[in-house]
Task: structure prediction
Amino acid sequence: MSESKRLTKRQVAVIEDLFVGELDEPAILKKHDVTPQEYERWLANERFVGQLERRIAAALCRGRVLLARHALAAANTLVGLTKSGTGETARKACLDILGLHDGGPKSPESPDPEHAPAVLVPGQLSPEVASRLLAALAKDDAP
Result:
């Protein structure tokens, strides 16, 4: 079975609706009069799947950019909440801060352990250390 070099207008419209429309997949297929069997054939088509994968990768990249754009404001808000008047809010903010990790790109090579900077990895703190950190933060906030 030979595949055409281009996607059909219906295929392009379905992909577009999957990413920008408000409808779910079955409603999109119905809107474009695509049967489940035809859609299954499209999903076996290398060009259709390739375009779908490119759109997924682009959407994920845009999401990462959006998160990066707002990361500083979110971190500032969390730090501000640690000084909140309510103990429960401050406690939760402290836990969120302790649970944060570097979401940046990872280097493919592993660093020399002797020269690698000390980095906290989520789950690396023992409950005792986390409690002492929270107590120190709470003490700093006390009048």
Notes: The two ends are 77 Å apart (CA to CA). DSSP finds six helices and no strands in the chain. Residues 1-71 form one domain. The chain has a mean pLDDT of 78.
